[in-house]
Amino acid sequence: MTLADGAWGTQLIGLGGRLSECLDLWNLDHPDRVRQVADSYIRAGSRIILTNTFRSNPISLAEHRLEGQCSAINRAGVRISRKAAGESAMVFASIGPIGKPHSGSDWTPSSLQRAFAEQAQALAAESPDAILIETMTNLEEARISAEVALATGLPVVVSFVFIFENNTPRTLEGSTIQQAASVIGSTGVHAIGANCCTLPESSSICRQLADASTLPIWIKPSAGLPTLIDGSPTYSAAPEEFSSSAEELRRAGATFLGGCCGTTPDFIRALANHPALRFGAARNL
Asked: Is residue 159 within 8 Å of 133, Cβ to Cβ?
């Protein structure tokens, strides 16, 4: 397996960020703090780090009146992670879902295609090692984003959020793992996976992904379910508990393993030091 990084939003909020602001803009306004997050994951043992560009598509940026800075924010995000990674790690550029649009925005398949293409092309201009399309909840949105990302010529990973209905994991719009693997696999992506699920859920999802697809599997579980304390999400899992439970993901077939919401460099360090997980060098897709 290859060890990826943990949550970025958790770390940026710890450095003074607010849930209500566009933290992707920190690539331009506070690059030193963004670099601090990237550096912390490299020191913890990550051999793949992401970029602070999860919500850097022009439709999402328009909610903060920042659509005109789409290219600058994305390109700066890759540069920051690349400088931190050096020769120690690969950089996977993050593209998140557009999700529910703000009032009055144009939200159609063609507008999604344009928005994702603008972001993907900006990311690709700084030569990351791959593009990660993550936290996808809608199969059609995932397909559109995958196709425009593949057009850059970079390797592409697509990661979904699955929820369990009657013991069957599905995306929020109802697609099964088998349907997601079939549709996304047919686009020519280089890996498929899941993030933002709890560890027990992730193990089951990983096994089903391995049965449904021959692609490498990307898995990033969250640190349990959050509760709000003083307005901030707090997660229940501890790093040692997380790393011990993650051993099941190796047996389930995970190729890439990291952490999602609530995980920190301490979680990644615990994974790196766990003797049964056997991480190797960064893997090319």
From this structure: yes
Using a 10 angstrom Cβ sphere, with 0-12 exposed, 13-18 middle and 19 or more buried, the burial of residue 267 is: buried
Q: φ, ψ for residue 119 (rounded to 5)?
A: -70, -45
CA distances from 169 to 146, 158, 174, 176, 207 (A): 21, 16, 9, 6, 12
Any idea what DSSP says for residue 188?
Answer: T
Average pLDDT score over the chain: 92
Please state, in angstroms and rounded to a whole number, the distance separating the CA atoms of residues 195 and 205.
Answer: 10
Evaluate whether 193 touches 223 at the Cβ level (below 8 Å).
Answer: no
Tokens of 231: 């307005």
- 44 Cβ contact partners less than 8 Å away, ≥ 6 residues apart: 5, 6, 265, 266, 268, 269, 272
Q: Please report, as a single letter, which amino acid is at residue 75.
A: R
Give the tens place of pLDDT for each residue, 92-128: 999 999 976 544 556 788 999 999 999 999 999 999 9
How high is the pLDDT of residue 227? 63
Residues 6+ apart with CB under 8 A from 284: 90, 129, 155
Distance of alpha carbon 240 from alpha carbon 250, whole angstroms:
16
Query: DSSP character for 142?
Result: H
